[in-house]
Amino acid sequence: MWGRKRPKQTYDEMLAEGRATFADLIRMAEESHEAVGQTFGILDGMQRGIEELLGRGDGLPTKSVRAQLAEHEQLWDEFLEETSAYEAQRRPWLDGGIETAEFAAMSPSLEYFAEYINANVPVMERLNELIGNLGDLQVSLMELGSKIAPVRERAHAAMASAATEIAWAGPAAQGKFALEVRLNAVGDRLRELDAGLVEIDAECSIVDWYRQVEAEIADIRDAILRLTF
């Protein structure tokens, strides 16, 4: 009938209800933890794919890209720390621990798991953003590599020709040693570009830098020709 009061729950009934709620919360925390771990796995795989493109001496900006990847490594370290703390909170409730738990024992962990689930929401958002960024970065690096290749090949061919031509000029050619110094400096710059040790510059692309090297070598070769006349 309307107005009839609900029978007062006994302590055992409240405890059983509390245990069921706690078990559901742990299940949600475990699902959240697994989702974050899987997303980190995707991020890690993409990072390894990018690493495979770097350090091959073909002019890709290895130094700058690895500085960007350092953020992902820091996040991974933080995830491992969080995982360690999570597992420490989860461990007492494995193998039937919930079925015998009292309110006093559940309360601290209940608060922890609730906060853990909430904290993972922005973490997942950040990870998905990074995955998108890494995807864009990988495509950009592959496109950049195809643009660098022909101008880099020309620069190296010109460098080899210039070294041969300056050797043929003979020790008596006036200004030869100054040209050798210039050519060595250009060679150092070319090796720096090949190794990807340059910093990314929004106003001048890596392809432009290779073209500058190519132009400098051409200027030196013209000067070498003038030595022989």
Task: Give a verbal description of the structure.
78% of the residues lie in helices and 0% in strands. With 229 residues, it is mainly alpha-helical. Helix 1 packs antiparallel against helix 2 (62-90), helix 1 packs parallel to helix 3 (103-168) and helix 3 (103-168) packs parallel to helix 5 (206-227).
Summarize the structure.
With 229 residues, this protein is mainly alpha-helical.
Largest sheet: none
Q: Quote the beta fraction.
A: under 5%
- State the helicity in percent bands: over 70%
Tell me, briefly, the overall form: rod-shaped
How many H/I helical runs?
5
Q: What is the radius of gyration computed over CA atoms, rounded to a whole number of angstroms? A: 32 Å
Mean pLDDT: 89
Series of secondary-structure elements, N-terminal to C-terminal: HHHHH
Derived structural class: mainly alpha
Beta strand count: 0
Determine the N-to-C terminus distance.
118 Å
Q: Flag low-confidence runs.
A: none
Search tags:
mainly alpha
Write the layout of secondary structure elements.
Blueprint: H1 11-51, H2 62-90, H3 103-168, H4 176-195, H5 206-227
